[in-house]
Amino acid sequence: MPDRQPPEMAQVASETGAKKVHRTWDRVLVSSFLGGAYIAFGALVAITVSSGLDPDTWGTLPTLFMGAAFTLGLVLVLIAGSDLATGNMLLVPLGAMQGRLGAGDVAKNLTLVLLGNLLGALFVAYFLAVQTGVIGAPGASGGAGLTHERLAQIAEAKGLHESPWQVFLRGVGCNWLVCLAVWMSLAATSVSGKVLAIFFPIMAFVAMGFDHVVANMFFLPAAIFAGVPDLGWGDVGVNWLMAGLGNLVGAVVFVATSYWYLFLRDEPAEQPSRTPTGGEAAERA
User: Mind telling me which residue stretches traverse the membrane in this protein (predicted)?
Assistant: First the structure.
């Protein structure tokens, strides 16, 4: 089967956004719990592979390794199937722009998905990252100590050293790239093609240090659970708020609106599919 062209991708994205809304709340919550957990898995492996690399020797290459590893998260979301708030920030508003959904549908879906993503990320952070000892306690030796140091570096940078304005702008850049990964994955009709489409934009946003609200739902709580000093829940809340707003702007303004204008503005609105969808493949982000 040949790959889809951009006008076909736009139609698939709009229809997928409509389908995401017309599901029962429990399906959305379970799907988004999985999405948050999958992104947390990507973040945890990214910490692991980039820990212990001395910047004096490696320079900025650890961020490249981290970005390459983090792509696991979106590959799991798109191929295994789940809901991720940052992807829904593209798909659901795009469905609304074509007249398939209302503003209330968009707000309700994004709120529920963010909640599910948070629960999934917190579960992995507490039980599978900290309680397992993969991320060690302060002063731990060996690999656990190295992962603690790496997590502390990331969390302190995001929660303490970036200003709210910087977090917002990094959120914009992040989700512009994440949504391009989701968008390009719609072009591919094979698993290998989807993985290749996902890899480079995700690797790039992590390597550049941009802020992804769901990834930060893992990094920052995991740091608090692991005993990283000076970081508080107030810092975490500000980061989540500004990163989430930036992610929303990056998705809606720079991807959804742009491709709606290019490919859907003159297309007639169709009735959305109301079939519950727990099993789309690349179209679920």
Answer: 28-49, 61-85, 106-129, 167-188, 195-220, 240-264
